[in-house]
Design brief:
single chain; mainly alpha; 18 helices; globular
Length: 445
């Protein structure tokens, strides 16, 4: 059967997909960063402790990461158009849940609605990688870095706006506005049409690992013959690829590394602004620290792609160096007494957090090439980060409840950060010892 000829404009549509993912991540991470601005209002109005309010806030990102692998499976069940469907549905659910969180009267209700919004974005986070992979097989690092920069821009723009909306309409009114603008994620999903080549079921199964390995019948092609529950369980088994934990020791090690990264990222996102407020910084100035961190994040997410694509650093080496810088920025927090110093540390922490997230996706993709499934590997990486995020907020919040300042929480996050490059360097040295001929490939190129 002849392959459908792609329309002339399709060669450029990949950049529309990059912009669509940019928009989705703008809303997701920008909204998450706004919880740092809202945190003190949660504590005051909902009679919550810092640990409770912080736990409710990080539940948003934790459920995003926890549910992402499973929604990746459901998206695959719907074939090449599955990504569009689930991203659009997720945008509506997240927007609705955020609006409903404005009526919370205690932190339990807040946690429920923010968790529900996180489920909505769980339909978005990993699934947006699939259309990107369809269009960018060679320059994935560049496309991933550019699209991931949307998260940084969201961090820069939305927190100051949220502070302004709070002053004008209260935190509840600001939350409703935030929920409504999250509908842009649904529009972004509609733009993520697959290329003509991936409309062929066989090509899609080969790209995303749904083929049975014998080139006869793929799991995707079996869908129409299986009952829905059996079909879902089969897809779960195939796409989550649990065997990768046993067959790839590097994969297991990096899941622990990603867990530590998730813990640190959650704590920094939620408590950057409250940390400044606790030291007497004005609310508007404190909110702009999030914007400064977002600017650094934007640069971090954008520059790692060229460094990888032009073989200046390997992904693991760059990841290790990135977390060394982040650890320094966090450990110096107790010395930051002036606003200018806080701004410098926020910039460098933001830069490293942005670079770290983009590298997480690239590392997961490269790990999968040694295993079986790209999307399964990316999904598990996000799951591990979510597990870490679940503890990041409450741990930093508890240190504040016990000590009355956030310095100890930032020192704790800095300590965890130092473990990441340590483990990464140990793994790199082990790999170099085992494969001396790959020294240049795995270290500095």
């Amino acid at each position: 059967m002849p392959t459908e000829k792609p329309p002339p404009w399709e060669s450029y549509w990949g950049w529309v997909v990059v912009l669509a993912r940019f928009t989705a991540l703008f809303m997701l991470v920008g909204t998450y960063k706004c919880f740092g601005v809202l945190l003190d209002y949660y504590i005051e109005d909902l009679d919550a402790t810092a640990a409770e309010a912080g736990g409710a806030s990080v539940l948003f990102i934790a459920t995003v990461y926890f549910t992402s692998p499973f929604f990746g499976v459901l998206a695959d069940m719907h074939g090449p158009n599955g990504a569009r469907i689930w991203i659009m549905v997720g945008g509506v659910l997240a927007s609705t849940a955020l609006c409903l969180s404005s009526i919370s009267t205690n932190w339990y209700q807040l946690a429920f609605f923010l968790g529900l919004a996180g489920v909505g974005y769980g339909m978005v986070q990993v699934v947006t990688v699939a259309p990107l992979l369809m269009y960018f097989t060679d320059k994935f690092g560049l496309a991933n870095g550019l699209s991931a920069a949307g998260a940084a821009l969201g961090m820069t723009v939305l927190p100051p706006l949220t502070e302004y909306w709070i002053e004008q309409y209260s935190w509840r009114g600001a939350t409703i506005i935030l929920g409504v603008i999250n509908l842009h994620t649904t529009v972004a999903g509609a733009l993520m049409r697959p290329p003509t080549s991936c409309k062929d079921k066989k090509m899609y199964s080969l790209l995303f690992g749904t083929d049975d390995g014998n080139n006869h019948v793929s799991v995707y092609e079996l869908n129409k013959y299986l009952k829905p529950l059996k079909r879902f369980l089969l897809m779960m088994r195939e796409h989550l690829s649990l065997g990768i934990f046993l067959n790839n020791p590097r994969f297991m090690l990096y899941q622990f590394i990603f867990l530590l990264a998730g813990l640190q990222v959650a704590g920094w996102h939620v408590f950057l602004v409250p940390n400044a407020l606790s030291q007497g910084i004005h609310s508007i100035d404190a909110a702009f620290l999030a914007s400064i961190g977002g600017l650094g994040n934007f640069i971090g997410r954008g520059f790692n792609g060229p460094l990888l694509d032009y073989h200046i650093f390997s992904d693991s080496m760059l990841y290790a160096l990135d977390h060394i810088i982040c650890a320094i920025a966090l450990l110096f927090d107790p010395l930051a007494k002036e606003y200018a110093t806080m701004a410098i540390l926020a910039f460098w922490a933001g830069l490293t957090v942005g670079c770290s997230y983009a590298l997480c996706v690239v590392i997961a993709k490269n790990l999968a090439e040694e295993g079986k499934y790209i999307m399964a590997s990316v999904g598990w990486a996000h799951f591990s980060m979510g597990f870490g995020a679940l503890f990041g907020g409450p741990l930093v919040g508890m240190t504040y409840d016990k000590t009355g300042n956030y310095h100890y929480g930032f020192l704790m996050m800095g300590g965890f950060e130092l473990l990441l490059p340590t483990l990464t360097f140990i793994e790199l040295m082990h790999r170099q010892h085992k494969h001396p001929e790959l020294k240049n490939k795995y270290l500095i190129m």
